[in-house]
Batch of 4 targets.
Target 1
Amino acid sequence: MLNIKDLTLAHLTIGATPALTIEAAAVAGFGATGIRICGRRPGDSFATPVLNNPTAIQALRTQASDLGVRLSNVSGYQFYPETRLDEVKPVVEATAELGVPILVANSFDSDESRFIDTFSAYCELAEKAGIRVALEFLPYSGIRTLEAATRVIQASNSSQAGLLLDALHLARSGATPEHIRIVPAERIVFAQLCDACAWSGDMTDDALLQEARGARLPAGEGVLPLFQFLDELPAHCEIEYEVARQDMRDRTPSEKAKVAAVDAVRFMVRYSQWSDAREAR
């Protein structure tokens, strides 16, 4: 029987500081969590500074260890046309000091060639620190599709570069779970699980962004082919539960995490039962 400790809590589900996210993951029973350690752009304000802050980094490491929560991945600065490598280097350094093995990367640079150069250099820094870089394609960003993300990863020539596969972004980019088969299993770093309504209206970048950051549905309550999505992932792929919901925005981080835990386990039990029934046929 699946245990909630087998799942990772996404920082976006909570929308809180790293410390509060770790605490919420522990309260809800998640075995691991992702954390955001800075704003989306260099220079953005951040409630609890982590970069270049050894005291904060040690406090987060101690907290996670004491609470038995593994720090799975870090979200740092996103990449824009003006983003420079020296601006994002502190993210790699802080991630290494935190002892976290995965860095999530997103691109909002429409010039793919320029981003490949920056991404390759970023991966080189991460590789020296023993960190994998998980590139996440977003259908409202500079890297909009699975194919584009795969192309960038191959062009980076980095053995540490891989993919973060989000069920929502896969569907909204026009792909199906079967398209995951084009990706070598070793290039899939981890996957994010959520559900969504059937799309209505214009599929603008802003509408897609707003859905991703605040209008997802609990797994099993929408129309995404999530059983098939999970089937196409490599065996033992890490699953992060990422459901940012407007109806939960006024709840505490721990309350959000508890609700997410119940929803995630309920769905994964259904998936396990479905898989067992299919095997029995």
Target 2
Amino acid sequence: MEYLFYRILIYIHVLSAIVSIGPFFILFPLVKKLQVSNDTELDAYLHTFRFVVRLAKHSGHVLVVSGILLVVSGPWTWGTPWIIMTLIILFCSLLFLARAFSPTLRKFHEENQNREELAAKLNRSIWIYIILLLAMLWFMVGKPVLW
């Protein structure tokens, strides 16, 4: 029974990782449309963007909880190097996610804002966030021995 529980946790953990990373790739074409859209289209694009960010946050919660349960019930300890590095990157990505998207998305409705600059900032933020998430994914899958 314990083995089944652990396997289900792994499945939940992997699924939540996919949901927290995958939707960000659909934002690249959306960012291009933010530059040239009219006000009606802009609201729809911004709503989609916010939804993706919110989805990533909530799937990140599932990812963290399932990760904690996996460490507690599995063969790994909190002192394992790849777990420590994953936690460091997780903390960095949480700080980054909190500041990277929402303030920039709000600026699209302000007067005299350069949409091209805002879109470029969003594009850069998407890449940074994806790289952070892929680094965490590499540590979780590769489990490198660092020290």
Target 3
Amino acid sequence: MHNQSVQLFTIGFTQKSAEQFFETLIKSGIKTVIDTRLNNVSQLAGFTKKNDLKYFLKQVGDIDYVHILDLAPTKDILDEYKKNKGDWGVYEQKFLKLMSERQVEKKVSPELLSHGCLLCSEAKPHNCHRRLVAEYLKDSWVNVKICHL
């Protein structure tokens, strides 16, 4: 149980220009971007390809970058969700079970996540696993404020 209050942000990069993306992070006082994508090297990632993003964040906003695969869905869960035309309820259930099995609340620290920002691709947080990660950690740690950028 952590008593320190954690301000946790989340952001998706699709439907944002690089300028919007980086300006939003800087204005919000983000210290670390936590990449929660399973695949962060695809061409579709544009300016958020892993090594590029790490470089840009540091140069543009002196923001650290860390990729935590434990916060990503497994390929199985993701593929099944896409094949099933996205039954969100099933995906959510499986993903939260995965977070619990992985005990992610013990693998990431409140220090890392304070003024941290969970990154994935979806433009909006509703049907996106970054929201599930944020809410899971909030339930595990108590003092977490979530802000979706």
Target 4
Amino acid sequence: MQPRREGNAQGIDVSHYQGDINWAKVKADGISFAFLKASQGQTFRDSMFIKNAAGARNAGILVGAYHYIDAASTDAAKKEAANFAAAIADAGGIEAFQLPPVMDYEEIQDGMNVSDVHAVAMAFLTEIERLTGVRPIIYTYIGFASNFDASFSAYDVWMARYSTDPPADTLAWKRWTFLQYSDGTVGDERPGGGKQVDGVAGPVDLNEYDGTEEELEAAYRNDSDDTDEGGDEMTDAEKQQMEDLTNRVAALEKRVNMSGNQTPPAWANDAIVAAKKSGYITTSNDKGHAELVMIQMLYNAGLCNEELVAFFRSFSAETKAAIDALVNGQG
């Protein structure tokens, strides 16, 4: 993986072990971001999490939350994700955190193998993303990283490696997004030298982002937080495109949503029943695949333009045959 470089944003990660922190002094000492322990297991909450979140935010530090995994099963992993999401909600909600939620996975429970680790990790990651709406990142250390296969490369990694040398490549990652380069006692030093951070009594984990503070903020900016003053306004053409899209969605909803009081998209079976009742399809026996049913409904509702027809034709031979039959008046 890549080495550290001058100009990278500097950060720390903390828990209740650090006690009371003077976040204004932390910010003044060149710290741009902080990851805060929120929870562990299915019930534990870090006693300093809410206080640390408020203090770091007020000091102008970019804040993220992390959860330490104890799970030995996918069911337990989902319950841990629920605990993490609830902790985040109690600290202001996901909108109050500028950095993504973190899965801290560094310990295998008794009886687990690599396949179990994959299953637990993926269950937690997908569940926390479902609960928060934000794609999480993975914290681990270089010795444990071998437990993650290439499928985990879809997630940014926060790698721990207490050395002046960069971490070695792993199967999942060739670059780190965040690097924990010291625990405050061993490992590499801060850009200005030393390992101490003003405002924190005692050792604290030291981290670096692969980019500047501005690049870090831009990489994980929550666009829903932008205001008209802070973000770019839509152009007239973009507004018209949005209105056209809204109208097309409303037209589709009117036909799929027979009761008028549901929020589309409905489940496939309900969509098939509604389509048959309205006459848009006459049978589902030969069009049992959900995508074929929806293509036929879109076409018969007048919502398939030439671009969509060409798009659908690029699918499987079965899908191409279905759209060709509709266009030729045989559907």
